[in-house]
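<context>
A single protein, sequence plus fold
<entry> Chain with its tokenised backbone below
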Amino acid sequence: METNTAVMLPEALSIGLPEIDAQHESIFRCIESLKAICYGSGPASLEEFENLLEYLKYHFASEERLAGEVGVDFLDHATVHRKNLLALRRAFSEVQGGMRDLHSFLRYIEYWFERHITDEDKPFAATIHARQATARDNSPAACS
């Protein structure tokens, strides 16, 4: 399969946290790769979809770690993550059970992911940026 070197993360969905933006890029690339397989040569293996869900779990853990590093309360965001993973797993179970097709799942996960970044990650990133700015402002000045 040909590698797409175009940036997959739209600028409007960048949150300004390099590690998290890179992971968002990877998730969009994975979704696009799965779409290319499903709409092109045939169905992707269900294992590839499982890998995407596992990567989302890793990504959510990265956000939680980042919040902890700067002392941001993550309880509400973590609850959203747990609910999201449950909903995505439920939808994927429907694919495995033949009640939903892969194309439908891909449309669902892509739409969900864009909404998650806009509705949850952007406010989360704003809180991280504010905490980092406060920490910089409160740090002692260097000696001249």
User: Anything to note?
Assistant: Residues 17-135 form a domain with the Four Helix Bundle (Hemerythrin (Met), subunit A) fold (CATH 1.20.120.50). Residues 102-138 form the longest helix (37 residues). Residues 1-5 have pLDDT under 50 and may be disordered. The chain has four helices and no strands.
